[in-house]
Each structure stands twice: as structure tokens, then as C-alpha cells.
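LAB NOTEBOOK - FOLDING QUEUE
OPERATOR: T.R.
BATCH SIZE: 2
PURPOSE: Compare the predicted C-alpha cell outputs for two unrelated chains run back to back under identical settings.
PRIORITY: normal
REVIEWER: second-year student, initials M.K.

ITEM 1
FIELD SEQUENCE / FIELD STRUCTURE:
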Amino acid sequence: MAEKFHKYNKLIRVSLYILVIALAVFMIFFRLGDSKLQTWDEQLYSDCVKETLSSGNPFLMKYQGTYFFEKPPLWVYVTEIPASIFGVNNTTVRSVNAVSALVILVLVFLIIKRKTKNEFAGMLGVLALLAVQQNFVMNPAGWFGTHNFRSADLDYFQIMFFVLAFYLIPFVNKNKKYMYLIAFVLGLAIMAKGFVTLLPAGIIYLYFLVKRKQLNINIKNFAISILIFLLTFLPWHLWMITVYGKDFIDMYFFKNIVYRSTKVIEGHNYPFYFYIKNFLDPRFDAMGIIFTSVITYFLFKLKNKKFDFDYIYPIAMIVGTIGFFTLVVTKISWYILPIFPFFAIMTGYFFDKIKSHKRVYLIFLIIFLVLFLLGISDSIRLIILQSRNLNLG
């Protein structure tokens, strides 16, 4: 009897894995290249890849016959690989972000499973991320939001490095070389999209500083780690400043960092509560109620002295991201995309924490499943419509 139960239980586990993987792959890759490229910013990045490849110098980004200084180059460099093999088309320019999304889902599952030893909690975290409409469709519920898992944009390519750095942190206790790997990953995150990486980098290095004795981290470890971090992104920036001077500084630093922070760019002027309103709109984020419950639960737990970094990092990323971009004058919905993987991780933690409270667990699980079904059904419907270039918002 016990052997039969074990086989039955294993069959259920394998079936759940297959269903979740199939759903994720379908939602990310179904007719990925069919919908037209959006003006903001898919067409721009696609043209940049095409012109850079045809220029004869694949390392110097070009756009509309001149140099492209708006973003770091890593996404373009990586996208040039499939584009060189299969040509520059909608599918190849969207592939890097799509693959990054799949990697994020895997990392979310692994992080939750490692912390909780609970595979089902890991699956719930993945499903929570899949249920957020902003992750899959253009302009959900009429909100201007063209960046997502399926778009030719830089966001989730960078966010993948944020999540990967978090995944690697526990390994530092076993081998200090992982501290250097984390530094390299954070440097790649800057090269992927820019200096918003300073938020996760600051959180992680503050953790290393506070826990230096327990982790046996010395000054040499810090010095090597920071050097690797700087060497990952500084050479390209110094090259650009040295060769192109004021043109690069004006476009890269002032227009894309200073101006967006202090002035309204392209009419994106909204009240300070814009992101909260966004987040709570069930047509934009079906998991808003669950995510709010989760963050409330863990914020109350913060006063516990045993509250560990597995909780602090996601909370700091969520609060820090929303807080920072609320202060930035130019407000666009995709600026807060980094919060969703960390909300998904906290959701997995949450369900594992409340599993001993059977009634509460069941109530939240039912609410979760209802919202999940509403979210993915809405996303799948819009993915199909938008793949036919319909209902683009």
C-alpha cells in the first residue's frame, strides 16, 4: 500500500511539474514574433540591433545612422547572436527577454524550494508570477505598458540578474568565490539596463557587511568583489566617455537618468500614487490582493530578531523599487517590473508559513487559485488577440 501511495504521489508531482512548465512555455513563447513591434521601445531596439550588425562593428551601437548612447550594450550584444543566425526579426529580438523570463521562473521556484523545502510552495510562486497580466500583454486594462516577458525590451533581461544574485547569496557561506560571482552578476545587470542595479547591489553588500563575521568575509574579499563589480561595467563607460565625451554624457546620463528623475518625459506625468493604483488594478495585476496580504504579513514579522535575509532582500527590493520610482517625476508602469519576481518569491514563502493553519491556508489557496485563473485566462486571451495585431490597447 505504501509503495502504491508513493508511486501515486510521484505521478501527481511529475504531472504538476509538466503542467506548470507547459503553461509557462506556452504563455512566454506562443506566436512570440507574430504581433507587430511597439513604438516604445521594441522598434527602436530592433532597429538598433539591425543597424549595429550591418555597420561592420557589432560592439558600437548604431541607430538611425548615428551612435546609440541611450542604454548600456549588453542586451544588444546578446541579441546579436540569434539575430546573426536567424536574421533580425520579431522573434529573434524578443527571444532574449523571453528566455530571461523563463530563467526567472526557474530561479523563483528554486529559491522558494531551497528556503521552504516545499515544492508546492515553489509552484505557487511560479504561478503567481504567471498570473500578472503586465508580464504578458501590451497595455493591460488601458495602462500604458509595452514592456513584458514577450517584448523586445531590456527589463527582464536585467531583472534576471537581480534574481540570480539573490539565488547565489547562500553559496557565499560555503565558498567566498561566490561573492565574486555575485559581483560579476551585478555588474552585468548594470550593463543590461543601467544603474537601478545600485539598489540590489546596495542591499547585498550591506548584508555582507553586517554578516561579515558569520560569513567569514574579510577586507580582501570585499576589495576583490568590488573590483570585479567595477571592472564589469566601468571599462565600457570610460571608453564611451573618452571617445564620445559630451554627446555620450548628455544622452546616457542626463537625458536617461537626470531628466527622467526631475522632469516629465514624453508626457508621463501621473500622481504619486500611480504605481499603487497600477498594482491594485486586477486587470493589470490579478495577484494584487494576494501580494498585498503577503507583504503585510512579512512586514509585521520584521520585528522578529530571527527575521533573515531570505525575507529582507525581497521586501527591500519591493519597497525600494516602488519608493524610488514614486519619487522619479516621469512615471511609466514598467518601471516597477522588478517587484513581481520578488512578490512571487514572498508568496511561496507565505504559503509555506501558513500551511499549519489549515483553515487560513485553505481560504488563501482558494482565493489564490481563483485570481490565478482569472489572471492567466485574461492574459492568454490577450496574447492570442495581440498575436493577430488586435486589441493592442
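ITEM 2
FIELD SEQUENCE / FIELD STRUCTURE:
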Amino acid sequence: MKYLLSIWTLILLALSCANGQMTTPASPNTGSPGTPLLPSHAATAAAAPTAGVQVTGKPVVRVNGAVLTDRDLVREMFALFPYAKLHNGFPKAQEPEIRRGALQMIIFEELVYQEAARRKMTVAPERVSREERKFEQQFGSQAEFTQYLETEMSGSKAKLRQQIKRSLLIEAMLKAEVEAKSAVTVSEARLYYNKNPKAFEHGEVFAIQTISILPPSNANQETLKEARKRAEDALRQAKETKSYEEFGLLAEKLSDDDFHVNMGDHKAVDRDKLPPEVVKAALAMHPGQVSELLQLGNAYTFFRLNAHTSPGKTTFEEVEKNLAGNLQKEKYEKLRVALGKRLRQNAKIETL
């Protein structure tokens, strides 16, 4: 499993501060899931230009003599909370915790980098040049890139190359000490499966999509009548659908319930969590069929049955991929935490 994004994403996030406020020269595509160890969420770059988040370059922590600033801290805060742009900054109630988490992350990154340097790890010059070209290509024009260099790197490409090299060394250290050691074999996954049989047992479940018409709680008879008419018309259209996608698109268009944003899909639901009326209807249906109209209180609803699974135990073959992935993530995190503790043992860390 790959946890790290391309190195130019790391650099974009590490360096995207300008004029005392977070700025972004580009919005790169996201890759595979990022580890929380590095500023590896590409969405962070897109979220960076957020009003009210000021950075001045003031020191916030010293790690074995190396000074990290509020620019590093804010960049990491955006990695932790990439929706800051939508919220016009960080939620006040969550900001202290986000800040604490970000501080721990930048300390960890610096310790990893220092350990890589202590081990005399190297990066081939051609690799740095390749990543530098990729980074430059993220800008809309040469003028934008030049402006970025002037603002962030004092016009120095050498400084940019050093930042790229730093990120590459962090990546190499994490791959060697965490990622490479976190691999999970099929045998290990099967052993976990055999030792935890109850974790893979399931009750009776139904996979359904719904379309619901929900009149106001204080609706009068006329409003209820109109709601039923809407529901009947929606049901007529739903009966004509031939697939999950067709029903889902109709749910997005017509349904009032919260699931309409996910094509009406409730995924797999345990029998005891469904209304008795829904269970009764589902037991008489085959996958792919659409139920008749059901009235639940003042609400009108109907559903498409996608699957009906009897009580039993999921086979290893059915869970192998997800199980191995989950075990690997767990193993990865344990190794990461252990590495962090080991690097902190003799480190001098001063919060400024």
C-alpha cells in the first residue's frame, strides 16, 4: 500500500505561504491516502488561501537547535483540517486541538529529517531535478513560478532544491522504517481472521436505496395530500428504472431524506435497524425490485432492494483485501508511533 503522495505535493504544502497569508499557486490532484506524518494532503494546498489565517515567520518550536516557524505550523494545520477554506478558517472550538496536533507533526517531521541526515542518507541529484521540474509544472505560467521563487525562496532555486531534498529524505526514512515494515501477508491476514471469528459474523442485512417524501411535521391535510401525490408520482418513475444508477439518480433528484446525496443508498443495514414495514416488504422481494409505497408516520417512502443477506459468517476471500489493508494501516501507525518515541528519547525540544 502506498501512503505517500508525490514529492511536489509535499513541497507545495510546505512552502505555500506568501505575503503573511497562506497562498496557493496550484491545486494538484490528490493521490493515494496520505499519512498524517507529512503535509501530504493535496486538498490542503487548495484550502490554503483562507481569510484570517496570518503567518509572520515567527519561531514556534526548536528541535535540536533547528527552528520551525508558524509557517510550518499553519501549513500542517491545513493538512489536518483541509476544509478550513470552506469554514473561512479553523473552527474556534477545534483550533487548539488542531494546533496541538500540527505542532506534534512538524516536530516529528523534523526529527525524521535529522535522523536521515545523521544516517547520511542521500538523494540522487537527478531525482531532485525531476521533482523540481514536476513542482514547477504545477504553476499556471513561468511568471507565476518566478513570482513564487521571489516571494518564498528569495529568488533562489537552490533553496527550493534544498526543500525538495528535505522532503525526499523524510519520505525515504518513512519508507525504510515504517512503510516497508508494515506490509501484511496473506498468511498474517488469515491468521487474524481465524483468531477473531466473531468479528466476521453478521446478522440478517438488507442493502437498500430509498426515496422519501417528507412533509413538514405540522402539515395540514392539504399538504399531506400533495406529499402523497408527489410520492406516487416518484414511485411511478422509480418502477421504470432498471438499475442501481437509474434509481440513485432519481433519488438525488426527488428524495427528501438525507440519503439522497448518496443516490439514496443506505448500504447494508441490519434487520433490527429497519422499520418492520420495510422488513416485511423486503422479505417478499427479489434484488432489483422496487417496493410499493409505504407510509411511516407522515412520511411516504419506498425502496429498491439491492441485496438480502442471511445471517452467517463472511468468508476470508470476501474480506481478504480490506482486512489486509486495515491491518497494514494499524501496523503502520504502531511503527510510526514507535519511531516517534525513539527519536524523541534524546532530542531537545523547546516550544517557543
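REVIEWER COMMENT (ITEM 2): DSSP finds twelve helices and eleven strands in the chain.
FOLLOW-UP: none requested
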